[in-house]
Amino acid sequence: MTDQEALRRQLNAMVEKAHRTLKVAQEHLERDQSEFASSKAYYAVFHMMQAILLTRGLTYSKHAGVVSGFSQHFLKCGVFPKEFGEMIQRLRKDRELSDYGYQLSVEPNSATEDVCAAAQIVDQLNTYLTPFLA
User: Fold this and answer.
1) Which domain holds residue 125?
2) What's the total number of domains in the chain?
3) What's the pLDDT score for residue 103?
4) Separation in Å, CA 3 to CA 14, 35, 81, 94, 134
5) Is the pLDDT of residue 73 over 90?
6) Cut 0.85: pTM above it
7) Could you tell me the CATH number of the domain that includes residue 70?
8) What is the DSSP string of the chain?
9) Which of 111, 98, 3 lies closest to 55, judged by CA?
C-alpha cells in the first residue's frame, strides 16, 4: 500500500466516524438528551478537523492543539469561514460542560444550535475532503 492509499483509508475512516458521531448527536437531540447531543456534536467536528489537518501532514495530541491548528491553517487564511472559529469554540465549551459538569447542563436550545452548527461545519469540511477520499 502506498502512502497516498494509506492516507486515503485513514481519512475515509475519520470522515465516516465523524458522520456516525453527528448522527448520534442528532439522535440524542431527538431524545431530549441535550448534554449528550452537544458532546457528540463537538466530537463530529473534532474528527473532521483532525482529518482536514492530516491532509497537510499535521497531527496534534490535544484538543486545544487541534482547534488551534485548524484555526491557524484553515480559518485565518480563509479556507473556511471565520465564523466557524466561534462555532467551534461554542461547541468545545458546551462539550466540556456536558462531559464534566454536574450541576450545570446544556439547555435544549443550545444543544439544538450545537447540532445544527456541527452539521454545517461537517458538511463544508466534507466537501473540502472529497478529492482526498476518492
Assistant:
1) 3-133
2) 1
3) 81
4) 16, 39, 30, 37, 14
5) yes
6) yes
7) 1.20.120.330
8) --HHHHHHHHHHHHHHHHHHHHHHHHHHHHTT-HHHHHHHHHHHHHHHHHHHHHTTT---SSHHHHHHHHIIIIITTTSS-THHHHHHHHHHHHHHHHHH-SS----HHHHHHHHHHHHHHHHHHHHHHHHHH-
9) 3
